[in-house]
Write a structure and sequence with these properties.
Oligomer: single chain
Structural class: alpha/beta
Radius of gyration: 19 Å
CATH class of the largest domain: Alpha Beta
Number of helices: 13
CATH topology of the largest domain: Rossmann fold
Order of helices and strands: EHEHEEEHEHEHEEHEHHHHHHH
Length: 307
Amino acid sequence: MFKKIAIVGSGAIGIFYGMRLALAGAEVRFLLHRDLAAVRERGSLILRTEGGTTELRPAPVFGSTAEIGPVDLVIVTLKSTGNAELPRLLPPLLGRHTAILTLQNGLGSDEMLARLFGPERILGGLAYIASTRTGPGEVTCYQSEAITLGEFGRRPAARTRELAEQFTQAGVPTGIAENLEQARWEKLIWNVPFNGLAIAAGGVATDVLCADPRLRAEVRHLMREIQAAAARLGHILTDDFLQKRYDITPPMGAYRPSSLVDYLAGREVEIEPIWGEPLRRGEAAGAALPRLSLLYALIGRLVAARK
């Protein structure tokens, strides 16, 4: 068991999984910035699910990683747009055997962390969850909470299985990816079309994307382009898998994907890891990706115009 854990990026994903681990007995410390004063005044972190409201009290929140100190596991749930801060944030948390788990979206975070801190430290994870930060230190989870874990550049190790068991005991259904890179492409099957079209179609939720025939068709086209790009890189995603990833969406109702939430709030959008890097890797491998190329360009222009 990873007894001491630091959450770097205490937003919707970080608070959700961090609270689950803390309530199961781990010593979890959350790095906060803008919400720090409000959470300290209230004295708790709050998680709302279909099962009710849970509080973690007292709230183990800190304003710097130096205050947190070395831990057994660092979970990076910071938006990838903030990755420039990681060379400064992470070193105070690292002991000789500290592992780093990144739950960031898209492609590129595993390689970046490996270059900075050594590939032997790096695990990657994919969070299949619909959750939103609804207040200072407060998260609402709308659907699912599963996670998939893997090792960067190698097959799962003993620590991967131990961490998966720790998440499972904390009430989080957890799978293990034999190939982390393939698992990241699998998640892009949903993230590319739904995060992207939610912005490009004028700020609409997933129910609109599924109900409108033209938007629904565009979702399918983008899914197939990601499937083709992944295949060029040796990752086979079946048609049945694509259908299953689509089928989870209508029950979400009027869910606003995280990229849309960031866009509407005026925050930076994770353009490069979700659309730019898959486009570059796919085209370099010989895949034709006209719709992804157009979506990438359109989101870039919309974000620039908003600024």
